[in-house]
Each structure stands twice: as structure tokens, then as C-alpha cells.
Amino acid sequence: MLETKNVSKSFLTKKALEDVSFTLEPGVIYALLGPNGSGKSTWMKMAAALSHPSSGEILLDGEPVNIKSREKIVFLPTDNFYYSTMTIRDVGKYYADFFDDFDQDRFASLLSKMELEDNLKIKTLSSGMLAKVKIAAAMSRIAPYYLLDEPLNGIDLIARDEVMETIIRSLSDEATIIISSHLVEELEPYVNKALFFKQGHLIEACDVEELRSTKGISLADHYRELMKGEA
Ligand SMILES: Nc1ncnc2c1ncn2[C@@H]1O[C@H](COP(=O)(O)OP(=O)(O)OP(=O)(O)O)[C@@H](O)[C@H]1O
Questions:
Q1: From the record, what ranges are coiled-coil (predicted)?
Q2: Most exposed residue of 38, 67, 162, 212, measured as fewest CB within 10 angstroms of its CB?
């Protein structure tokens, strides 16, 4: 279980997150939604043990997340962390060296689904192609938790659905995934639950199917309602 308990995070005087609590359940696909600067990446980096809460804690199976928890938590950050001279094949080797759970065959198959040749150099890729390589590498790890920060950035409209399907198909039934994105409509068909951040607060957690059946509104419309007044 991945539990966020009363987590706050400040950068000097800026409060990026304030008293946020929620638990990610196994086998659920979550959308992490909120306007720019609402704290989504800040939470992901802390859950990936790349930074620490100012107060509160994030617990993986009862223990505060730490370097060791990276074995169970796959994190896809927004920035590019590959060397420009690497080929896509080198990216696979680099992951295989770092992570025992990295599945080279799955990486090859995901690259082929996304029509990427593994002899291409990182510096020659378009931003959409690079985004696909990052997704293929992350989803080739076999882990219980995946945290994807804006994975669809740079990917064209037509390819987004294919990429989302590739992500979802790569998951085992028990795996938990949380995807942050501003592309609410694109995420909607694939997610079970949504967490809404606004100005550093978790303002709502909802079940997407329930939203449609009881309120008769889409996730995107619910988002618009909740974020009214935001720039
Ligand atoms: N290293 C940092 N130093 C100072 N302030 C930071 C730092 N990282 C984040 N912040 C601030 O914390 C707040 C939350 O930022 P965060 O990146 O988590 O938002 P976000 O919801 O991921 O935004 P976006 O959708 O634009 O990516 C913002 O006001 C941001 O300026």
C-alpha cells in the first residue's frame, strides 16, 4: 500500500503541498489532476523518494519511502534524463543495469508497437518520440507501482490513445498506476479514480464511473467545476 499521511512540502516561503492524505489501492488506475503549480509533481517526487516532505510521511507497505522503495515504485519524471548520444537500445541496457525487474523483451515489443527503431540516437528524436521511449522504458519494469508525470506531453493527438492503451495493457491486475496530466479528456476512458489537487490541497478524490452514473457528468466537466476561478 502507498499511503500519503498529512504531507506538507514547502520551498522557502512557498507552500507547494499542505496536509495532503490519501491511499493508493492495488489494481487501481488513478488520474492526478490539477492546474499548473497545484503540487502534482511535488507529490510524485516525494513518493519516488527523490525529495522529502517538510512534514507528514509517505509510507510504502508501512515504511517511509526511501531509495530502496525505488525497486517497487517506477517513476517517470517530466524531464529528459537520458544522454543525448545514447541510442534507444542503450536506454534499454541502462535500465537493465539499474533495475532487476526490467524486461528487455517487453521493451523491444513496446518499441515496436510504438514504431521506434532501437538504433536511433536520443538527440535525433522528436519530443513525442522521446516521450514514447520514456514510456516504453518505464512500462518495461515489472513493479507494483507506477507514477507517471505527464507522460502524454509531446505526443500527438492520434498517438495518445495508442500510448495510453500500451500503458494500460502493460500493467498486471494488481499494479497501481497514477498518471498526472492536463489532458483530462484523453485520460478519462482509462482511469478508475481521480485525485484533484488545487493550490497544494487535495480537494477531492472520486470514482470516475460513479461520477458518470450518479452525477451524469464527465471527468473533464467535473474538473472544470472544481477548478472554477483558477487562472
Ligand atoms: N524546487 C522548487 N523550488 C521552489 N518552488 C518549487 C520547487 N518545485 C516546485 N515548486 C513550487 O511548488 C508549487 C507546486 O509545483 P509542482 O511542480 O508540484 O506543480 P504541478 O501541479 O506539478 O504543476 P504543473 O502542472 O505546471 O507541472 C509551484 O508553486 C512551484 O513553483
A1: none
A2: 67
Whether 80 has a pLDDT exceeding 90, the answer reads no
Looking at ligand 1, which atom is closest to the CA of residue 42?
18
> Model's pTM, two decimal places?
0.95
Whole-number Å distance between alpha carbons of 65 and 126: 34
pLDDT grade for 231, boundaries at 50, 70 and 90? low
The number of CA neighbours under 13 Å toward the Cβ of 183 is 17
2-80+143-228 fold: Rossmann fold (3.40.50)
Looking at the DSSP bridge assignments, the partners of residue 85 are none
| Average of per-residue pLDDT values in the chain | 94
For ligand 1, whether the C-beta of 11 sits within 6 Å is yes
* ipTM, 2 dp: 0.97
Distance 50 CA to ligand 1 centre (A): 14
